[in-house]
Write a structure and sequence with these properties.
six-stranded antiparallel sheet
Amino acid sequence: MKRIPLVAVVAAAALAFGRLPCRAQGSRTVLQAIDAALSSDQGFSPAQRAALASALRTRFADYGLQTATGLRSSAVQVALHMLVEGSFDEVPAERAAEVAFAAYQAVTRGAPPEVVEGIGLYGYRKRVPAALLSAWANGYTQMTSNGVPADVAADLVRAAMENDWDEAAFDILKWSIVHAAKERFNARDYSTYLLGHMLKGGKKPGALTGEAQTYFKRIAKTGERPVLPPYEGSFSPLPVEAPQAPPKQAAPPAAPAQAPAAPQPSMPSVETAPRVETVSPPPNRPAAAAPAPRPPARKPAAAAEGFARLWPGLERASKSYLGTPYVWGGMTHRGIDCSALTQNSYGENTVAIPRVSQQQWKTGTTVSDEGWREGDLVFFNTLGHGVSHVGMIVDPKGPQFIHASSSKGVMIADLSKNYYKTRYLGARRVVP
């Protein structure tokens, strides 16, 4: 019988119990680093921590024995973010471990951690191999560093994920869009042409990109507008439908005010100022025949009445996104992220707030704990270093809030649940 070295027996036993002696003074293995973070996170119950520890030992296997230093340290932090987001959605421990491992591998393969933190959550919608996740993250970085707008680059990643395009197809489309940017073609038109025809089928990516480049070179010389196929991305707002009539009021104004069209939300890469401005007429006053450059601000005495008029539209706008899938940086009913949900809901009711959650945190006024009102923004720390998630109160008595969940899409959740309470940072009131 072949004798097994004693060191291998010790290592295997240590791995089975989720512990391995440090390889050097002060160093920790990947599993030890994750286990320490989970143990100090009060958002997980003892039973949840035990289930995750078991699933992580199985999924990480020998990778869990690696020393958590350098690039692996960053990869551990991204993996922890995947686990926390999974707890928000109450996903099974085995699935959370699978998503965390794919994200860990993508970062250790050189994919940028900040991009993996966003697109890694796609693993909760469908299983994404680490190699493909790494290709998407690196591809996004290659596109944006070569002049491709961030929303176009992110939309290619979304389209590849939703349509199960393999890495080879993704690479061909990626470099074609990069080439278009260098040729100074309109990036959104080019991407719409390319992806729209890709979804129609019938042509392979290589042939399609050659056709697209020839076509856009020709119209660049003639000055024609491109003929584009039907295509709706998650980053270009859909056509605005005719506005619905405003809800009836107890004492309607003398002349009905026409609801203004919803403003186009800003792109993910652009942060608007944290100041809130309204572009609707003040309460009990009909809209002017010609829009003024800047409407008068609400009077403090009318603030409560103003919000009472605002809330029905705000509630209707936010709930229109229920079931919309999570998309990293998404801004439409085809796909949306947490801060775009809150920005769009207010924006569709003519109240401007910033695009990203960190800037939304600086908007409006502070609301004391459990002093919530409908429409208040509630903020969470899912990354361990400040604001990283936002939702909006829809029922303060529940308390319930609406937010964009990575696996379930836009949903209404109970704020009193432990994994929300332990990561809750505070609330802000946008309109007094």
